[in-house]
Amino acid sequence: MFYTDITEAPVTRERAAELIACSLDLIDRHISRGVLRPVSYTEDGTPLFSSADCWDLYKGTPRGWQLVSGPRGKP
C-alpha cells in the first residue's frame, strides 16, 4: 500500500522503518524513548504510528523535540 500524501494513514512498525529508512532496531529505540508513539491500534492490538511523525523523524526534526543548541535537525 502506498500513500502519495505522507500524512494520510497510520503505518505499522515495519512501514515506519521503511519511511524513516532505518532498521527495526532503531524503530524500537525510537518507540522505547517515546520519540515515536502509537496513534492507534489494529483489532489484534498491533500498534500503528503516524506517517507524519515518521516523516518528521526522517527529516531529523521530530515533533515535540526542542533544539537546545546545534544546527537545525541535530538535537
Task: List the main descriptive attributes of the protein structure presented here.
75 residues; alpha+beta; Multidrug-efflux Transporter Regulator, Chain: A, Domain 2; three-stranded antiparallel sheet; 3 helices; 3 strands; disordered N terminus; disordered C terminus
Q: How do the helices and strands follow one another from N- to C-terminus?
A: EHHEEH
What is the overall shape? globular
CATH class of the domain at 10-59: Mainly Alpha
Outline the biggest β-sheet. Answer: 3 strands, antiparallel
Low-confidence stretches: 1-5, 67-75
The fold-level CATH name of the domain at 10-59 is Multidrug-efflux Transporter Regulator, Chain: A, Domain 2
* Total number of beta strands: 3
Mean pLDDT: 78
How do the strands of the widest beta sheet line up side by side?
Answer: 1-3-2
Oligomer: single chain
What's the CATH architecture name of the domain at 10-59?
Orthogonal Bundle
Computed CA radius of gyration, to the nearest angstrom: 13 Å
Task: Please indicate the percent range of residues in DSSP E strands (runs of 2 or more).
Answer: 5-15%
Structural class: alpha+beta
What's the N-to-C terminus distance? Answer: 32 Å
The number of helical runs is: 3
The percentage helix is 25-40%
